[in-house]
Amino acid sequence: MNEVIVSMNHISKSFPGVKALDDVHFELRSGEVMALLGENGAGKSTLMKILSGVYTRDDGTMEIFGKEYGDLTPKQGQEAGVAIIHQELNMCRHLSVAENMFLGRELAGKFTLDNRKMRQEAKRILDDLKIDIDPDQTVGDLPVSKQQMVEIAKALSINAKILIMDEPTSALTAKEIEDLFRIIRKLKAEGRGIVYISHRLEELAEIVDRVTIMRDGQYITNGNFADMTMDQIITNMVGREIKEKFPRVSCEKGKKVFEVKHLNAGKMVRDINFSLYEGEIVGFAGLMGAGRTETTRAIFGADPKDSGEIWLDGQEIKINCPMDAIKHGVVLAPEDRKKDGLCTKLSIRQNLALPNLDMICNGLGVISSAKEDKLCEEAVQNLRIKTPNVEIDSGNLSGGNQQKVVVGKWLARNSRVVIFDEPTRGIDVGAKVEIYNLMNELKKQGIAVMFVSSEMPEVMGIADRIIVMCDGRITGEVMAQDTTQNEILTMATSFENKKKVG
Amino acid sequence: MNNKQQSPVKKLLAIRGMGAALTAFVGLVIIYIAFGLINSAVFSGQNILNLLRSMSKYLLIGIAQSYVLITGNIDLSIGSLVGMSAMISATLMTTGMNPLLAILISLLCCLVIGVVNGYLVGKFKLPPFIATLGTMFVARGIAYMVNGNRNTDAIATGIGKEAADKFQNFFYYGKTLGVYNTFWIAMIVFIIFFFVLSKTRTGRHIYAIGSNVDAAKLSGVDVVATTIKTYLISATCSCLVGLILCAQAGMGNMEAGNMYEMYGVAAGVIGGVSPLGGTGILLGTLAGAAVWQTLENGLNMIGAQVGIQRVVIGVIVVVAVLLDVVVRNGKFGKRK
């Protein structure tokens, strides 16, 4: 063990207009977990796509198991034993677990597919990993965590020796992460090399052996995880010291702005009551699937409500669709930016302008490009969106910058209530702090901020008051300064009846 | 942000979808010159006039389909609406009804189908392929039924020769400033809808829906209303083409506009309108319609049979899109 299995040297790669990688080095040994760290847009994913053959490099050398590869195709990559578990899971949702695992290399009998054998083989691998999944289940019906396990099982079924995991924990609950780590440790013990990409630095200590840090497409450093402090890692990633991970501003708590009374919407939103005040950020904590996203969507009018009242500045308002909400100054930056937040095929300009067209149109609905330019320029400046110009497809931006566009859409308006649903998911430390600062800015302006997040340290660091949800109900409310993670977790897991945690 | 003054050419090229549209125009010029070199009659003044006139029908159909395609939907009922509009207006005129009234009634009927399309797709979330397949059959059926399953007599028999001439000249045979009226009608429609798509709120909403309907909805876009609008625009353009065909023939033909919905797709797609939604501009559709008509016209002029014409046109559509994919994605779409 501990022999070098991947060695990449002087790797460079350009895309039209961008140098994505510049003279990067990377080394992976068998039986280790190598964390590949860097901000969004640092080039981690590009480097890994070169390793797996999705992209071809412009320059540099690459050895896998001592064999030099020129232009690697994805198929060769697979044969060399490289497998990627993607950030966005790549599964055929309508096919079964076994069908997905053997996709593209189905086992065949004489005339037909040998389904029995594929099922058995799938079952064997899943059992081996101690994962409780039926090979016949449809993948689309499985929760994300289980789908991810299936991807790992698929990688093992092709006997991958090098597993690349891109943000594997970003959509998992604490319990599921434990399961994943158990599997990673097992794979490590079997002598496989694992590349682990994550923005959740606090979880690295659990599994990581070594670290490679990248910044702006360049290799910065590598070393044993044990020899580095968290501050060193962050400084290397960001290129500057981040003084405060969770900047906090204190404001006078003002009058009540927003109140939700007895809101019900489907199974996951049951009798929700809460109020938001000027000058405070209210965090919504809870496990994945606690009904927080559903609550935000119901308030915003994206999903129908069964019953309940919504009050704004002392008056009841009716919100039946997002248009109503926006008209009243209640806005939502949704959880899944690719699915709900952005029109990825449209430019940054078009995205920023979309909800604000009423402000930049004349009576006939004709858009004033001068007003639109001004709106975009302000948003780009205020949010520090890193882009050469606003005509670029928003889909080409890095995650952090995409999130800034999603948020930026709403800041041009005079809103009363801004709802952030997981605004920092999958974005880097630097961008996170910028989003926090932005929420603080809103708080100072007397705008009510509702902040949904599954990351406990963040909720405790940024919110003033924390409302905890579990299973579609509010199970507790605490002030951030006098609570503990344990207290919140207890409330977040206080399921009704006999249901167990996780 | 830097406020550098960009050169007008650069600014033009920066418009999304302009690249594909300009490529189509370049293709148009090449095709036109190539045919002209084989048969110089292609360059003749009368042929150019004919070309502009027949292109206009495809342009209108292309606009109709492009609006729907950009939202990521499709309208299969276009051809049937053309037939329906031709038959209803012709039948009414053969009874002696005032042409203006006949036109209005026929437009109204088309709009009804358009609203049905819009509701089925926008409100009830039916796959547009299915919803408009249904209305395609219904509208064609109505086209058959209005005059008892046969083509109409000449409209002159009802409204008299003078009125019939006026109607036919207005839509087809008459000229203004030396060019056939059909062309001017199409141009006016083109300019209006080009403006609507590129400069107005409705246009922006259309792109947003085609790019990501969920995000559009959460940004406060009224998806149902916008979808209905696109189908209404489609129905209006289809109705207009029906009237043009009616004027051309001087009567109603039950099969008028057969397959036009697909010609609309072709015109759009050649000009860079993506059937997946979110991209494309009407300038591209204009180029696409012109390419299409120039091909048909040129092949005719050099004496190609109908069979070979179809083959060539089919190949061009595929090649145009293939080229676009290759150019955009590098070699064969391997890289994103």
Describe this structure in words.
The complex is a heterodimer of chains A (502) and B (336). Chain A has 502 residues and is an alpha/beta fold. Chain A is 33% helix and 24% strand. The longest helix of chain A has 16 residues, at 174-189. Chain A starts with a strand and ends in a 10-residue tail after the last helix. Mean pLDDT of chain A is 87; it is low at 498-502. By secondary structure, chain B is mainly α. Chain B is built from 14 helices and two strands. Chain B has helices at residues 8-14, 18-38, 45-70, 78-94, 99-123, 128-145, 156-173, 181-199, 201-211, 213-218, 223-249, 260-270, 282-301, 306-329, and strands at residues 175-176, 179-180. Chain B has a two-stranded antiparallel sheet with strand order 1-2. In chain B, strand 1 (175-176) and strand 2 (179-180) form a beta hairpin. In chain B, helix 3 packs across helix 13 and helix 7 packs across helix 11 (223-249). The longest helix of chain B is centred in the last third of the chain and has 27 residues, at 223-249. The radius of gyration of chain B is 20 Å and the shape is globular. Chain A binds chain B through residues 55, 300, 302, 321-323, 325-326, 332, 334, 339-347, 350, 353-355, 357-358, 361, 364-367, 377, 380-381, 389-391, 409, and chain B through 1, 14, 16, 199-202, 204-205, 207-208, 210-212, 214-222, 277-279, 335.
The order of strands across the largest sheet of chain A is 6-7-8-3-9-10
Major β-sheet strand ordering of chain B: 1-2
**β-sheet strand percentage of chain A:** 15-25%
Q: DSSP strand (E) fraction of chain B?
A: under 5%
Short précis:
Chain A is of the alpha/beta class.
Descriptive keywords:
heterodimer, A: 502 residues, alpha/beta, six-stranded mixed β-sheet, B: 336 residues, mainly alpha, two-stranded antiparallel sheet, 14 helices, globular, disordered C terminus
